[in-house]
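Could you help me review a protein record that somebody else here produced? Do not assume that whoever made the record got everything right. The record follows directly below this note.
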Amino acid sequence: MQYETERLLLKPTSTADADYILAVMNTPKWLKYIGDRKVYSREAAEQYIKDKMLPQYNRLGFSNNTVIRKSDGVKMGSCGLYDREGLEGVDIGFAFLPEYEGQGYAYEAAQKIISLARTDWNIQKISAITTKDNLPSQRLLEKLGLQSQGVTKLPGDAEELLLYELHLSSNEVK
């Protein structure tokens, strides 16, 4: 299933997106804020998609989406909902190649995902986590209507992360 916004197409990530996934997972910001997933080749990217993204999509009907600019078909970013161990509700996440940051694409894609969460997937609560030093991510989460809930730690990770939540049953999403 493919979704559309004014400027973007969002489609579930598939192995055909391996080159893009390889590129985004090795950007400085991904490595700093999300972490090194040891994806260093196209083959490793394909395997990561098969092992980490497709099973959730097949189980829940949503997962990572590749964000494509409609005007030229360029794969610019990722945005999706993730069933993450250690968090209540699903986790919204986004990552873009550096040359496409700061142009409102992440906000536009995340707004669409939040809308779909309510209308298509009947999700009541969206969570988000970010590192304490990732100010652009924090600003975007707040702009999307998520509210700070303090800090949390994921299982097996010592780092304290900022936790945000959005309760869809009580908030209007455009």
